[in-house]
Design goal:
By secondary structure, the protein is of the alpha/beta class. The protein has helices spanning 57-70, 87-99, and strands at residues 49-54, 74-82, 103-105. Helix 1 runs parallel beside helix 2 (87-99). The longest helix has 14 residues, at 57-70.
């Protein structure tokens, strides 16, 4: 059992919290176009080199990485920071990202 320090929501910088999939009509897997409280998209605020982890590797993570690459960013995938729905799909997604030049950090 691990215990982690918690933060009150008032301590969080809401400019660094991005929401996606808020429109029921638009299917949005990638976080690249997610917006913060001020309406600023994540894709406009990231650095040239982006480290990516998240859930689920074969859907949201993969689409976010593809969008980052398309926008010219260097991407490092944090494999131990990934969750997935299907193990074989997870492995295929990692392979697809690696073939596109993503650095894989085990």
């Amino acid at each position: 059992l691990h215990s982690f320090p918690t933060r009150r929501s008032s301590d969080l910088n809401e400019e660094n919290i991005f929401h996606k999939g808020m429109d029921d009509i638009v299917e949005e897997y990638s976080a690249f176009h997610g917006i913060n409280k001020k309406g600023i998209p994540l894709g406009t605020m990231v650095t040239d080199h982006v480290y990516v982890g998240g859930i689920a590797s074969e859907y949201c993570v993969k689409e976010t990485v593809f969008e980052l690459l398309k926008a010219g960013h260097k991407v490092t995938l944090l494999v131990k920071g990934l969750g997935y729905v299907d193990y074989n799909g997870h492995l295929a997604a990692i392979d697809a990202m690696k073939k596109l030049g993503v650095e894989i950090l085990e």
